[in-house]
Structures are given as structure tokens and as C-alpha cells.
Amino acid sequence: MTRILIIEDNRNLATGLRNNLEIDGYQVELATDGTTGLALVRAGNPALIILDLMLPGMDGYRVLRALRADGCETPVLILSARGEETDKVLGFRLGADDYVTKPFGLLELLARVDALLRRSASNGARSEKLTERVRFGEIEVDPATHTVWRAGSAVALRPKEYELLVALLRRKGQIAGREELLQEVWGYASEVMSRTVDTHVAELRRKLEENPAVPRHILTVRKAGYRLQP
To answer: Quick one: which of 68, 18, 83 has its CA closest to 38?
Structure first.
């Protein structure tokens, strides 16, 4: 049975989430503080982590940073009342796979949980279709090792950032719509909308473009989506 860990100090919210996830067939564990949650991840390696940010003692950002420093690649869905763009960007930079703000729609949250688990289970099958090294500008991508270099120096990309980059590369300059990328990289149904794609594109530009404010390669096509210009 697929195991999900909820790290949330609001017991009523956590219990309600657990009940609904168990109805959907998941095994759910609860932790009400960051230190306990981190210990449970290290002890049991859940399939998915739902993580609050404002936790007693060790906050959610510190938990996430510690997990990724451990080399843990378990999908993490941040569930937080902190909805500012800067909060979301920091979450993604630290390695979150998705970010949902409170209050939230239960059906949407369950859809996102399902999508993250399906993406994790597929183990990056789509990105493996790119088999040869690709170069554009100062960037080089090696699909065999999932490694990206800029001007000869390795660039640390999170898994979803890498998959998004590969999705753009495979289109060879053709436009990819936001909904199309959301489905391909995150596995979401088209009706589940978020700023996830835009935030990850911004992170790719920050890491790969010489001037992220005026990108040369990862271009926005107004009212259409994104495309990669070699």
C-alpha cells in the first residue's frame, strides 16, 4: 500500500486529510512537528510527503532542506497558508515538487497527490527519450546522467526542472503550452491549474540564462506558452 506522510501541526486538518487519503486507498502517517516528521522520513521512506511550512521547532523549509541534503528524492507537496510568490519560489528552490496554498479544494489536492505519485512511479520515463547530448548556447545536457552544464560548470537542477528542460528540448523550438507542460512533466489533468510551470521556468532561467530578465533561450510566447531557442 502506498504510504504518505503528512507533516502538519493543525491536528484537525491533518486528521481530515488522513481520512480522505485513506478512503482513496493510501496508508497515511502523521507528524505534528518538523523534527518528528524528518525522523519518520529517514526511518520509513514514504512515497510522498505533504509538508506544512509553519511548524513548531523545525519549520518546513528546514525540513525540506535537510531531506534534499540527505539525497532524499521523495516527492514533497508543500501545503501552507504562506501564499506569496517569494514563499513558493523558495519552496521550489529547496526541492519541493508542488505548492498548494490554504485554504484549498480537497478534490484538487487529491488530484495533485495522485499526479505526483504517478510521476514518481513512472521514474522519468518521458525524459529518457532524449538519448544524445544536446548543446545550445553555453548549455550542454547529458541525458545519460541527467547532468546539465553551463559554460563547462555543472548546474544543479531539481528533478522537475530537468524534466521541464527536456520537455522543451524535445520540441526543437516548437511552442509548448502551459497546460501541455503541466500534464507532461507533473502529470496533472488539464483542469488542474497552477503557477507551477511559470515558477519552474523562472528557476531554469535563473540557473541557465546569462540574463534571466532578458532570456536568450527559454522564451515566453505570449498567450501560448514557452519555447526553447537554441
So the answer is: 68
| Contact status, residue 33 vs residue 57, Cβ threshold 8 Å | yes
**Rounded to whole angstroms, how far apart are CA atoms 35 and 230?**
45
Q: Where are the alpha helices (DSSP H) in 78-177?
A: 85-94, 106-122, 159-170
- Measure the CA–CA gap between 211 and 228, rounded to whole angstroms: 15
**Confidence at residue 128, expressed as pLDDT on a 0 to 100 scale:** 43
> Residue 213, by phi and psi: left (phi above 0), alpha (psi -120 to 50) or beta?
alpha
Q: Please give the Cα distance from 101 to 88 (Å, whole number).
A: 9
Q: What is the mean pLDDT of residues 174-193?
A: 75
Q: Name the amino acid, one letter, at 64.
A: L
CA dist., res. 216 & res. 229, Å (int):
7
How far apart, in whole angstroms, are the C-alpha atoms of residue 225 and residue 180?
A: 9
- In tens, the pLDDT along 18-73 reads 999 999 889 999 999 999 999 999 988 899 999 999 999 899 999 999 999 988 88
